[in-house]
Design goal:
Elements (H helix, E strand, L loop, with lengths): L3 E4 L2 E4 L2 E3 L2 E5 L9 H10 L4 E5 L2 H4 L14 H11 L2 E5 L30 H18 L10 E5 L11 H13 L5 E6 L3 H7 L5 E6 L3 H11 L6 E6 L15 H13 L3 E8 L10 E3 L3 E3 L18 H13 L17 E4 L2 E4 L4 H4 L3 E3 L14 E8 L3 E12 L1 E6 L2 E7 L6 E5 L4 E8 L15 E8 L7 E6 L10 E2 L12 E9 L5 E4 L5 E6 L2 E7 L6 E4 L7 E9 L7 E5 L6
Helix pairs in contact: 1-3, 8-9
Length: 584
């Protein structure tokens, strides 16, 4: 049994003053075999606390079906943090932002008509309650009041940036208390007045999130919450990347200087991120501030620990400042995780998507091109097929409203791409015998922040040829969560471009000494990569990310398999497994 409380303008743990020095590590962005390594490195830096969000969508992928195993075993992650000697701060949804798909909300929420997100809506709250009924009892034994490491828990996340429904926040607070969450409860918001006014509720400790101008942010907090501890719940010491934009970095000394400003003010700090990890699979989010911008697979965040767990100059400077201001017990660094160059892997097999549809999906018939969520699909791709009668003179194909990136095929021939951020039309003529129209839409990640959270995927309104709509569609959902039924045929040296449309490529490589590696796809255009059935995430020649991180625990001694789902084709069907990362 222990207590973490507020005593005047200080925190206290078991009655003794404590300044929280925390770092964010998201268990769902790190393979579990590396949790202890990353946590030990956090501890060795001089931090005393680890913070993590809880992503609802990974724990309830389908309504009423829960998952708390493997990468999503939050109990094991928290227990590992306790073994390392760390306190834990938990931020348990329902919304987390985090540049994570849909801000952590499950996609199936969008299938229910009339449901309103993140407010006092009975339909939404019923879903939250059902989730909390499973999640929170798992966390209760881990609270410090029950002898565990969890010292504080958050209510919602940066709500003042989204709305002002304080009744909703009070409902979440009451629900957490009723389920035995008797540790310090807090909210976190940006330091702007309107954010603090809309995100705070009585009796709940408020924290602020910022990346610079620490004194101004703390002054704003003190104005609304005087004579209380100062806490930066998210110190943005780095930043994330969008596809097609430069890789973000922040000068290490500048980040250290702001951290020192907070220490001088007596503030507690949570580094966001301390170790970013990876948006494996289809879990990257997106931003939409008037223009949709999807986040890359890497979540390196230019953090003190890299995406693959190496220490950086930023780490060294942060550790030096902590040793300057605090008397901490030395903690040894784990040995660096080894990396290997396994060399070039040539793809030996191929399977065309359109020829494999019956192995991947059962088609459904709809009058209109329904979005993914209405068909029970969360992530991946969706294919819409219809027949257009002819003859028709040159006419314009209009997708109204496509989310997010659509490849258009006429009688199997690629005609072009229509992107959400560039909603151009595609013109073609229709001969007397008519044509088959296929539209393959990629869900590139749901919006995770701001007023445009309701982000259904696929064709969300309709398809027009000229002015009128097209009806009568065959739809294949393609979540790509099971590729075992694919039938690959050999690639002849001079025939690797014979397949039309998107193609799955397969290759194998042998591993005698397991280590981390990086998958480079220099001659590829855009798609998704899988290693031994694990979805590593997306790649795209648009950059800035040029290689995908492959953690060693995904490999096995002996033969290993790579599958590449390439949308646009490649002139050289081979990949490189190197020991050098390339974030752009």
């Amino acid at each position: 049994m222990a207590s973490f409380t507020i005593q005047g303008d200080r925190f206290a743990y078991e009655g003794k003053p404590i300044q929280l020095l925390s770092g964010a590590i998201h268990y769902f962005r790190v393979v579990p075999e590396y949790w202890k390594d990353r946590l030990q490195k956090l501890k060795a830096c001089g931090l005393n606390t680890v913070e993590t969000y809880v992503a609802w969508n990974v724990h309830e992928p389908k309504e009423g079906q829960f998952c708390f195993t493997g990468m999503f075993d939050i109990v094991k992650f928290i227990e590992t943090a306790a073994e390392v000697g760390l306190h834990v701060i938990v931020r348990p949804s329902p919304y987390i932002c985090a540049e994570w798909e849909f801000g952590g909300l499950p996609a199936w929420l969008l299938a229910e008509d009339g449901l309103r997100l993140r407010c006092y809506d009975e339909k939404f709250l019923a879903k939250v309650d059902a989730y909390y009924d499973v999640l929170l009892p798992m966390l209760k034994p881990l609270l410090c009041t029950n002898g565990g490491p969890i010292i504080a828990m958050q209510i919602e996340n940066e709500y003042g940036s989204y709305g002002n429904d304080l009744k909703y926040l009070e409902y979440l607070k009451s629900g957490m208390i009723a389920r035995g969450m008797d540790v310090l409860l807090f909210t976190s918001d940006g330091p702007e007045d309107f954010m603090l006014q809309s995100g705070m509720i009585p009796g709940v400790f408020e924290t602020v999130n910022f990346g610079s101008r620490a004194s101004e942010a703390f002054d704003s907090l003190q104005q609304v919450q005087p004579d209380m501890p100062l806490m930066c719940m998210e110190y943005w010491n780095g930043w994330f990347d969008h596809w097609g934009k430069p890789h973000h970095t922040r000068e290490a000394q500048d980040a250290a200087n702001v951290f020192e400003d907070m220490l001088k003010a007596g503030g507690s700090v949570n580094f966001y991120m301390f170790h970013g990890g990876t948006n494996f699979g289809f879990y990257n989010g997106a931003n939409n501030h008037g223009k949709y911008e999807p986040t890359v697979t890497s979540y390196d965040y230019d953090s003190p620990l890299t995406e693959w767990g190496d220490i950086t100059e930023k780490y060294v400077l942060v550790k030096g400042l902590i040793e300057k201001y605090f008397d901490i017990e030395p903690a040894p660094l784990p040995e660096p995780v080894s990396k290997k160059n396994y060399g070039k892997v040539r793809m030996s097999g191929q399977a065309a998507l359109f020829a494999s549809l019956d192995l991947l999906s059962d088609p459904v018939q709809r009058t209109c091109p329904e979005p993914m969520e209405k068909l029970g699909q969360n992530y991946g791709f969706i294919l819409y097929t219809t027949r257009i009668s002819g003859p028709r003179a040159a006419c314009s194909l209009e997708l109204q409203d496509v989310h997010d990136r659509a490849l258009v095929f006429i009688d199997g021939e690629y005609k072009g791409v229509i992107e959400r951020w560039d909603p151009k039309s595609i013109e073609f003529t229709v001969p007397k015998e008519g044509v088959e129209l296929r539209i393959l839409v990629e869900n590139m990640g749901r919006t995770n922040y701001g007023p445009y959270l309701r982000d259904c995927k696929g064709i969300t309104e309709g398809v027009r040829l000229g002015f009128p709509f097209l009806f009568d569609w065959t739809i294949h959902t393609l979540p790509l969560d099971d590729l075992l039924k694919l039938q690959f045929k050999p690639i002849a040296a001079a025939e690797h471009m014979t397949e039309t449309g998107p193609v799955f490529y397969r290759g194998t490589f042998r591993v005698d000494d397991i280590a981390d590696t990086f998958l480079e796809l220099e001659s590829w255009t855009k798609g998704v990569a899988f290693v031994n059935g694990f979805n590593l995430g997306r790649y795209w020649e648009a950059g800035p990310q040029k290689a995908l991180y492959v953690p060693g625990p995904l490999l096995r001694e002996g033969d290993n398999e790579i599958v590449i789902f390439e949308l646009h084709g490649t002139n050289e069907p081979s990949v490189l497994l190197t020991d050098q990362p390339n974030l752009g």
